[in-house]
Write a structure and sequence with these properties.
Layout (H helix, E strand, L loop, with lengths): L2 E2 L3 E4 L5 H4 L1 H10 L1 E6 L2 E9 L7 E6 L3 H9 L1 H4 L4 E7 L14 H15 L4 E8 L1 E4 L6 E2 L4 H10 L4 E6 L4 H9 L2 E3 L4 H17 L3 E4 L11 E3 L5 H8 L21 E2 L24
Parallel strand pairs: 1-4, 2-5, 2-14, 5-6, 6-7, 7-10, 10-12, 12-13
Antiparallel strand pairs: 3-4, 8-9, 8-11
Length: 288
């Protein structure tokens, strides 16, 4: 089988690997490669090199880095054989839509602080993602996951971060079906309603010197104070590792994604079914 090589390994947009599958990652690193199933054509499998001479930077996506930090401290030589580690840390308000996320905000702030101290501010992206408005079935009361937004921004700012990445939930058919089955109705927001919400959030972020960067939200880029997000940012990664990274847009992502090219090694089935099981997410939930 041919080996695919990528300067950047994404781990992973498709499921929370750092929270649940780090033992598997360590095994694959020792093996030197990982076989990745194409999520759009399951008959197609790519063998991706994980050798340090081929991988310049890992991009880690998670809502809980507890296991990642534990294994990093146990396997420092292995992790440090790579030039860079870059973190996408999602911290939303605790919500009835995230019932399986039981770790407190305060514990996650401690993880965020640890990552910043160990790897530097440049290596960490903070995400409030996604913003979602919903109702319980049979109720006319609108709810959202924004109730702790200012508290989170205050704590993120106190750690020195000056950017946050956000998006509004995309209500894919499978998301709508899942939420309906669990007794919730996701609300599709008009552009005007999104602007109303974002204007409130801009005021909060401005008061804590935080820039808001929109992920795949082209309609919001016309708003003053909103910039395009580059979640996987080749320019930042260059600074982290002290080497050039090709500035190639990732054509495998949505049209309005600002990410640079990487290779994602996650999936949606089998071991990759996500144990967070958030009601609004496009990942495949773990079976109960």
């Amino acid at each position: 089988m041919n080996i695919t090589k990528s300067d950047i390994i994404s781990c992973s947009r498709r499921t929370d690997i750092p929270a649940f599958l780090m033992d598997w990652v360590i095994d694959q690193i020792r093996l030197g490669y990982v076989d990745v199933v194409n999520p759009f054509n399951r008959k197609q499998v790519y063998r991706v090199s994980l050798k340090p001479e081929h991988v310049k930077c890992w991009v880690w996506w998670s809502k809980n880095f507890e296991k990642w930090i534990e294994l990093y401290n146990q396997e420092k030589d292995l992790f440090k054989s790579y030039k860079g580690h870059y973190f996408q840390f999602t911290i939303n308000s605790p919500s009835e839509l995230e019932k399986n996320i039981t770790i407190s905000l305060e514990e996650r702030f401690k993880q965020l602080e640890w990552l910043i101290k160990e790897f530097g501010l440049l290596a960490v992206n903070y995400r409030f993602d996604p913003i979602i408005v919903f109702k319980k079935k049979g109720s006319n009361e609108f709810k959202s996951n924004l109730n702790k937004f200012e508290y989170i921004i205050e704590n993120v700012s106190a750690l020195g971060l000056r950017e946050m990445i956000f998006s509004f939930a995309t209500i894919y058919p499978k998301v709508k079906n899942r939420m309906n089955a669990r007794g919730y109705v996701p609300v599709e927001l008009s552009f005007e309603k999104k602007k109303e919400i974002v204007n409130r959030l801009i005021e909060i972020c401005n008061s804590y010197n935080i820039k808001m960067k929109a992920c795949c939200q082209p309609d919001l880029l016309e708003m003053e104070g909103i910039e395009q997000a580059h979640c996987i940012d080749a320019y930042k990664i260059e600074k982290l590792i002290g080497e050039n990274i090709p500035k190639i847009r990732d054509k495998g992502q949505r049209d309005n994604c600002g990410c640079f090219k990487s290779k994602d090694i996650g999936g949606y089935s089998g071991i990759f079914r996500c144990k967070h099981n958030c009601d609004y997410c496009y990942a495949s939930p773990a079976k109960k």
